[in-house]
Write a structure and sequence with these properties.
The structure holds three protein chains of three kinds.
Chain A: H1 2-29, H2 34-39, H3 45-54, H4 61-74, H5 87-122, H6 127-141, H7 144-158, H8 174-177, H9 182-208, H10 211-218, H11 223-252, H12 255-261, H13 266-275, H14 279-307, H15 309-312
Chain B: E1 6-16, E2 22-33, E3 38-42, H1 49-55, E4 64-73, E5 76-77, H2 83-89, E6 94-97, H3 101-104, H4 111-122, H5 127-140, H6 146-149, H7 159-171, E7 177-181, H8 189-206, E8 209-214, H9 217-223, E9 226-231, E10 234-240, H10 241-246, H11 251-258, H12 297-301, E11 307-308, E12 314-315, E13 345-354, H13 361-366, E14 376-384, E15 388-392, H14 399-407, E16 414-419, E17 423-424, H15 434-439, E18 440-443, H16 447-450, H17 457-469, H18 473-486, H19 503-516, E19 521-525, H20 533-550, E20 553-558, H21 561-567, E21 570-575, E22 578-584, H22 585-588, H23 595-603, H24 642-646, E23 651-653, E24 659-661, H25 666-672
Parallel strand pairs in B: 3-8, 3-9, 6-7, 7-8, 15-20, 15-21, 18-19, 19-20
Antiparallel strand pairs in B: 1-2, 1-4, 4-5, 9-10, 10-12, 11-12, 13-14, 13-16, 16-17, 21-22, 22-24, 23-24
Chain C: H1 6-10, H2 15-27, H3 30-52, H4 84-90, H5 93-120, H6 122-137, H7 140-151, H8 155-182, H9 185-193, H10 197-233, H11 245-252, H12 261-288
Helix pairs in contact in C: 2-12, 3-12, 4-12, 5-8, 5-10, 6-8, 7-8, 8-10, 9-10, 10-11, 10-12, 11-12
The chains are: A mainly alpha, B alpha/beta, C mainly alpha.
Chain lengths: 316, 673, 298
């Protein structure tokens, strides 16, 4: 068991390393570099050479990679050419903001999704299920920018209850954000809930059709006892991984929501960085997001390892 | 006799097809089960026996509904009861022992908890008493160390242990009736025998009535007081076990019994032509009319009803008195064996060892093989041209591995396999010549998995014909039709997909595919194990015919000793990948035998009410072969101590090429057995 | 007796007849029917719209800015006086073109590589799987945006980029499906017969893995549309004045409070297409008997 955990951790670290390599190589491969981006039309001749020398861009790739990677581990991503400030400062608060968004949406969305998914499965094909499933399909398939726009239309413009655009500056303390972020959280939670709900529903339906549930029925186990003691534990196991994957994947795509609501998070920063070709910043954000993804996956795998009796008792 | 506990009255169950037709799965079932009696419910796949057993508990699989009649438990119709009442009796007075215990136990719940659940639901014991009761139940089903077992999860147990847990769980509510749905399917022969003995003992100890559903007449014969035979959703025969087994009054039951191979004779059992009708396809007459040897016009016009006979039976046949006068079937022609000893050898194994372990990185660098006990070891045998060589053993014996090595899918770790005393078969498939590939063909066990579901029969047969002979166009078609004829399938089967064929038909296509190459050696890997017994007889008959026509050599692998007896000229018995005994089948199936062969023979269940299997080995599975000494050392009831554990037993030759590998000399074995 | 050539006799079941069977099975379910109709509608619309559109999509007119829907302009006009109806009709063309080609690309290369890896195994398989895992960690939108910004936008860049990145999860899926199929006896039978490896892949594996790939393809298509329209929305996709739903929605945001029709039309158009594809994919999965349940979005 311990060996399994250790192996999984090692795999996670390896993946992050590989990702960092891919990011670095990817940025190298793209036409141009930080200096051409920064200098724009003036990127030529002496200015270009000076710039490159100043920022050490003519050193071999491997050295630059090593320096960047080691710095990243310590939390130092270098300096943004555009803003002339250390990247970690800029990223810090925005990272916090995105995390708030993600965490709150998850806290609301995941339990709700699980509950609704179970209900939809247990009352399968009845009105409740049809309503829930159809709404879920809609929420899943409509692009986030559409649903966000619609939310703003309804709650901000027509009803005037909530602000449609976040105007609080990015480094303000948490409390000031709270009213601002309700709509973005709803937008994110909507998509999250829809995805997870459908997975839970299918998982429960599959389990209900299994032999051991038939056996439980034929043992005389009353319905609700069967649901809680036999169906749910088995249905929830595969869901753990899927929930984590979904959350991770959605977090990678919050940029759209952040743009619509003008939310000062990592996604919007990323957009700006790309737009201004601030390559160092882009690299840093990519690495952070990727690490977040790997971390969430790792957490989910470890949780499954602990929860699944088959894995728990496995001898490696 | 008092009122029956379970009484099924004119029960009909069916479903509505997509086209809106109502198709029956069960028709006019009348059955009564009294206290303490065991009824065997026997029939082949699709006859509706499982549906009937579940219906007795008021349970219908989704999509099914009651068309007519009722099923009473203690006088109350289970289909009228509400959920609460059903929950009370299920697991309590009427308990089910399911078919595949491994899948019927909740994976996330410990064994102790699951059994405790049953106890809690159906008794009034307090917590401490419940725990004791659970341990008591586990002991009752003869599971070792029950206190420890409580904490295990289902997947940590072997198949046999899981089945015992299922039995314990069923007994928790002290039921009056036990329903057993094929409880020993998928278990090893020895395990099966042990479980059946357990069930018999339990029945006598507790006085519980049992409904034993199975397709295996041997198992049914062992436990039943009365037997009910089902065919195409109807009850066609019911009566005292002895009567039904010795003198069945219905032609189907008779045909079924005749199609079961017996240990005593090397005869391929007779088969019944045709196949059972699909639900709703029986028409107005008797469902068995198309296959019956004594069918008359009246059979097709009017459906017979269940009538009592003078011998306490109930039979559904217009002419049941004539059944006992039906002539015994002709055994199929066997190939001429008189000159077999002079035939050339077609396959020779010389000290062959095979291992699945692959060299790891370190081993690869050092250029050596991994130091693991090989899966198969020390195989020396010769197979002669034109004979059928049987390879017998339980699961884990390595018999499939040997076949794969012959086919070139797995290279031997050491030793040589020689073909026709000339070519080496050590080469893998990629390196073999086209001719060699053609001469050696494989047929697999599972008909569903051995045919590509996306290819028509024509495409399946076209592949070897194109590969080996480069046929095309008309020639291809003609040859394909000829092949189908050889396996007794009509030409219009060419356009069908495997999903449109029955299990037996699929297996025939697999046989045709193998013979398309005009092989000299056909390797049969449990080819009939997944088939119903009557279908099995037809396929075996087919194989013999092909051998008579073409002189093919067979290596026939099976765990079913009776089937191997019917087919094989010579037999080798394998345990954990090592040879135990080898010789002509008559000699191997008689004494003296290797202790393992003795155990295997003793555990076979024949559909003979007088036969009593003898149990000699522990019902504990060996997961891997021991590093030294005799492979059977841990389970052998005749283990004579250190010599068995440490030294490889010598070959002790008897007559006609019969040899046994044991430390005990032959004369001693003979006197002991 | 009529003589038949090898090809006709063995290949009597054409791809077309199988396609028809599958489609009609899908249409027999209500959700499948709705999905198919929506998809078909949009495809036809994309093809014929340039011919039947009432106005030129570029036609600006300062006088009729942000007019409400009327008999002349059924969906009203946008902030530059362009006819919303026309632009909505044409708005899906780029999206459909790019995503359809990219999907086919993604399924082809991802599927092929996945099947090969599933068959070959070994160290190459291990290595590539680690790489696939690593790639899947990257936030997709960041990567897409970056490439578009640095290399340029337009179908020539988008098609290969989307095709490449969305093919990566397909590798994993095709590999898993291959593992399942390879374990079956008929593949072993083909190996034992001595069939060439390419024959085994072509005749035994691919037809059985195809089902899974098709369903996956349908789902990929809807994700691609989402990605494409998100890119357009953010301003990194189609360049104006070419009409595109994502771009239109983005534009219309600023005027939503008093001119919602400019946003509503493209919203409905885009949503209906994506929902149509999803419903069709679900129906396809059910018809082919595939359990798509336990799949995370990537």
């Amino acid at each position: 068991m311990v060996r399994l955990i250790a192996r999984r951790l090692a795999l996670g670290v390896l993946t992050i390393l590989l990702v960092s390599g891919i990011i670095f190589v990817g940025v190298e491969v793209l036409p141009g570099d930080s200096c051409t981006a920064y200098l724009g039309r003036m990127a030529q001749g002496k200015r270009l050479d000076n710039c490159r020398r100043d920022f050490g861009l003519e050193r071999p790739a491997l050295t630059r990679y090593g320096e960047w990677a080691l710095g990243a581990v310590r939390g130092d991503f270098g300096v943004s050419l555009k803003r002339k400030t250390p990247i970690s400062e800029t990223v810090g608060t925005r990272f916090r903001n995105t995390i708030i968004l993600g965490v709150t949406a998850s806290i609301i969305g995941v339990p709700l999704a699980i509950l609704l998914g179970i209900i939809a499965a247990l009352w399968r094909d009845r009105p409740v299920d049809l309503w829930v499933s159809t709404t879920a399909i809609f929420a899943m398939t409509i692009p986030e920018f559409v649903s966000s726009t619609v939310l703003i239309l309804i709650f901000s413009i027509w009803l005037g209850w909530l602000p449609g655009i976040v105007t609080t500056p990015h480094d303000a303390p948490l409390l000031e954000f709270l009213s601002d972020i309700i709509l973005p959280i709803v937008a994110l939670a909507l998509v999250m809930t829809a995805h997870i709900l459908r997975m839970v529903r299918t998982s429960v339906i599959d389990v209900m059709a299994s032999d051991y549930i038939q056996m439980a029925q034929l043992k005389g186990v009353p319905y609700w006892q069967m649901v809680f003691k036999h169906v749910l534990p088995n249905a929830m196991l595969p869901t753990i991984n899927l929930v984590a994957l979904t959350i991770a994947w959605l977090l990678g795509g919050t940029v759209v929501i952040e743009v619509v609501f003008n939310y000062p998070g990592l996604g919007r920063l990323m957009l700006q960085a790309i737009f201004f070709r601030d390559l160092a910043m882009v690299q840093a954000i990519a690495l952070i997001l990727a690490t977040l993804y790997v971390g969430l996956n790792l957490f989910a795998d470890l949780l499954t390892l602990v929860a699944n009796p088959r894995l728990r008792t496995m001898r490696t | 006799m008092g009122d029956p506990l379970v009484q099924v009255k004119n029960l009909g169950i069916g479903f509505t097809s997509r086209a809106g037709l109502i198709l029956p799965i069960l028709r006019n079932i009348d059955l009564a089960i009294g206290e303490g009696e065991t009824i065997g419910l026997v029939g082949e796949s699709g006859c509706g026996k499982s549906t009937l057993a579940l219906a007795m508990m008021g349970y219908l699989k989704s999509g099914l509904s009651v068309l007519e009649g009722e099923s009473l438990f203690r006088g109350r119709n289970v289909f009228d009861m509400d959920e609460r009442a059903l929950e009370d009796i299920r697991g309590g007075e009427l308990a089910l022992i399911p078919q595949n215990a491994g899948q019927s136990l909740t994976p996330t719940s410990r064994i102790g908890r699951q059994i405790n659940e049953s106890v809690k639901l159906h008794t009034r014991l307090a917590k401490e008493q419940r725990r004791e009761r659970v341990i008591e139940l586990l002991s009752q089903v003869r599971l070792p160390q029950p206190q420890e077992l409580l904490h295990r999860y289902p997947h940590e147990l072997s198949g046999g242990q899981q089945q015992r847990v299922a039995i314990a769980m069923a007994l928790a509510g002290e039921p009056d009736v036990l329903l057993l749905d094929e409880p020993t399917t998928g278990l090893d022969v020895t395990t099966q025998a042990h479980i059946l003995q357990l069930l018999r003992d339990l029945a006598t100890e507790t006085g519980t009535a049992m409904v034993y559903v199975s397709h295996d007449l041997g198992a049914i014969a062992r436990v039943s007081d009365r037997i009910a035979v089902m065919y195409a959703g109807e009850l066609v025969l019911e009566g005292p076990a002895r009567q039904v087994l010795k003198q069945p009054a219905h032609p189907y039951a008779r045909g079924l019994l005749l199609s079961i191979p017996r240990l005593k004779e090397a005869v391929v059992p007779a088969s019944m032509p045709g196949r059972p009708p699909l639900p709703g396809g029986a028409g107005q007459g008797c469902g068995f009319a198309d296959r019956c040897p004594m069918v008359e016009q009246r059979c097709r016009d009017k459906r017979p009803t269940l009538e009592p006979t003078a011998t306490q039976e109930f039979v559904r046949c217009h002419f049941h008195e004539r059944v006992e006068q039906l002539p015994s079937p002709e055994p199929p022609k066997r190939p001429d064996r008189s000159s077999r000893d002079e035939m050339d050898s077609i396959l020779q194994f010389n000290d062959v060892a095979i291992s699945y372990a692959k060299p790891g990185i370190v081993d690869q660098i050092l250029g050596r093989q991994p130091n693991v006990t090989p899966t198969i070891d020390k195989i020396d045998l010769t197979i002669r041209q034109g004979e059928t060589f049987g390879l017998v053993g339980e699961s884990g014996s390595g018999k499939s591995t040997i076949l794969r090595a012959i086919a070139g899918l797995l290279p031997p770790q050491s030793g040589t396999i020689t073909y026709e005393e000339a070519e080496s078969l050590n080469a893998s498939v990629e390196q073999r010549s086209n001719d060699l590939l053609r001469f050696v063909q494989l047929i697999f066990q599972n008909p569903d998995a051995s045919l590509n579901p996306r290819h028509t029969v024509a495409e399946i047969l076209a592949q070897p014909l194109k590969l080996y002979f480069g046929l095309g166009g008309d020639e291809l078609r003609e040859r394909s039709v000829a092949l189908l004829e050889q396996v007794r399938l009509r030409a219009d089967y060419l356009e069908r997909l495997p999903s449109q064929l029955s299990g037996g038909e699929k297996q025939r296509v697999a046989v045709a595919r193998a013979f398309a190459a005009e092989p000299k050696l056909v390797l049969c890997d449990e080819v009939t194990s997944a088939l119903d017994v009557s279908v099995q007889a037809a396929v075996l008959d087919l194989l013999i015919q092909l051998q008579v026509d073409q002189g093919t050599t067979y290596v026939f692998v099976s765990h079913d000793l009776a089937v191997v007896r019917a087919l094989a000229d010579r037999v080798a018995v394998l345990y954990q990948g090592r040879l135990c005994e080898i010789g002509p089948s008559e000699n191997v199936y008689r004494f003296p035998s290797h202790p393992y062969t003795e155990v295997l023979l003793g555990a076979v269940l024949e559909p003979d009410p007088d036969a009593e299997p003898t149990l000699t080995a522990e019902d504990v599975a060996d997961l891997f072969p021991p590093a030294r000494g005799c492979p059977f050392q841990r389970r052998c009831p005749r283990n004579i101590g250190d010599i068995c554990d440490n030294e490889t037993p010598p070959w002790r030759p008897a007559e006609f090429g019969h040899a046994i590998r044991c430390h005990i000399p032959l004369d001693e074995l003979r006197s002991l057995q | 007796m009529t003589t038949m050539s090898n090809t006709d006799f063995v290949k009597r079941r054409t791809a077309f007849s199988t396609l028809l069977t599958v489609l009609s099975a899908m249409a027999s379910r209500p959700s499948g029917l709705v999905g198919l109709i929506l998809v078909a509608f949009h495809i036809v619309l994309a093809i014929v719209s340039p011919v039947i559109a009432p106005y030129d999509f570029r036609e600006l007119s300062a006088q009729i800015i942000l007019n409400e829907p009327s008999s002349e302009h059924w969906f009203g006009t946008d902030n530059l006086g362009r006819d919303v109806f026309t632009r909505t009709m044409l708005g899906g063309r780029q999206a459909l073109l790019v995503t359809t080609i990219s999907t086919i690309l993604a399924i082809s290369w991802g599927g092929l590589l996945g099947v090969l890896l599933g068959l070959v195994g070994g160290w190459l398989d291990e290595l590539l799987m680690r790489l696939v895992d690593a790639f899947l960690c990257l936030p997709w939108i960041l990567v897409l945006l970056l490439i578009v910004v640095m290399v340029g936008s337009g179908p020539a860049v988008l098609i290969p980029t989307l095709g490449f990145f969305y093919g990566i999860p397909v590798i994993r899926m095709a590999r898993a499906a291959t593992h399942d199929v390879v374990a079956l006896d008929f593949v072993t039978a083909a190996r034992a017969r001595g069939e060439a490896r390419s024959t085994i892949v072509r005749r035994e594996l691919l037809p059985n893995v195809l089902d899974v790939l098709l369903v996956e393809g349908a789902m990929r298509w809807s994700w691609m549309l989402l990605a494409f329209s998100s890119l357009s929305f953010l301003g990194f996709g189609v360049a104006p004045p070419t009409p595109d739903w994502g771009l239109m929605i983005s534009n219309a945001r600023s005027f939503m409070s008093f001119a919602p029709w400019a946003a509503l039309a493209p919203v409905v158009a885009l949503s209906s297409l994506i929902i149509g594809i999803n419903l069709s994919a679900d129906a396809l999965a059910k018809v082919l008997g595939i359990d798509r349940a336990q799949k995370a979005p990537v």
